[in-house]
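User: Could you check the structure of this?
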Amino acid sequence: QVRLTESGGGLVETGGSLRISCAASGRAVDSYAVAWIRQVPGKEREFVAAVEWSGLYTHYADSVKGRFTISKDKATNAVDLQMNRLKPEDTAVYYCAASLNPLSYYSPNSYDYWGQGTQVTVSS
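Assistant: Sure, the predicted structure tokens are below.
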């Protein structure tokens, strides 16, 4: 099975940019659909973005479309999320999650393997 480790979170000002990364080990990342999912304490997990196993097709939540870009790097066995024009409402713990065959790319429940999360804080 695949193991996922997130990195790159931190504090950034409104309008700034941040890139977070999900390193995969144990299995090749190109076997999996991989998503970024975020959660604020006391709220439900929220889908952010996903990339299909091939790396060719991507999916985004409306709230981040045009600002965030997900990409899969098969050479480094990682999936990155480039976040631009950040807003305070983007503040959350961001989790990387993977599935061999997700029922729905947009549903957090579709993903079987999860990392430990990385905190992203956007100051106003």
